[in-house]
Design goal:
155 residues; 4-stranded antiparallel sheet; single chain; alpha+beta; Alpha-Beta Plaits
Length: 155
């Protein structure tokens, strides 16, 4: 590690990029791609997991195919002394896909996946507006996706 940052080599970067595209790719297939043994690939991946570079493996689900076709982003201003309580309460919600503390005008930035406008209205009234300490809520609905990155950083 250098300055608190983990230094990984080009092969690790390539492995991470492949895993990001297909988390189910086999060690043998990765080995063939990078001219390494299956055991060598496994060792590298285990090392990346132990060092926290790879946090978990997951699946990306198309929200529209599971009746969650409305995607809403919220900017929620919260009084500072209510921030942790509001964030914790929102984070418990299944309809909340991601929630971040942000700099700038807004305090919390939240992404929710919902069925339709009726569910959006119910969610806003019963889960957002009802919380003590929220001073302002701005919402934006996605009309069309041009690009969506799941799984984070591309190395």
């Amino acid at each position: 590690m250098k300055g608190g940052r983990l230094i990984i080599d080009k092969i690790d970067n390539n492995i991470l990029n492949e895993l990001e595209e297909n988390g189910r790719i086999s060690y043998a297939e990765l080995g063939r791609k990078f001219n390494l043994t299956r055991a060598s690939i496994r060792e590298r991946i285990v090392k990346l997991e132990k060092k926290g570079v790879i946090e978990k493996y997951t699946v990306v689900i198309n929200p529209e195919k599971v009746n969650k076709g409305l995607s809403a982003f919220f900017e929620i201003d919260v009084e500072p002394h209510h921030l942790d309580k509001v964030a914790s309460k929102l984070a418990e919600e299944d309809r909340v896909y991601s929630l971040y503390l942000m700099t700038g005008v807004s305090t919390l930035h939240m992404h929710s996946l919902l069925k339709d406008n009726d569910e959006l209205e119910e969610f806003m009234i019963n889960k957002i507006y009802s919380q003590k300490g929220i001073t302002r809520v701005r919402s934006n609905i996605i009309l069309k996706r041009y690009k969506s990155r799941e799984g984070g950083l591309r190395l």
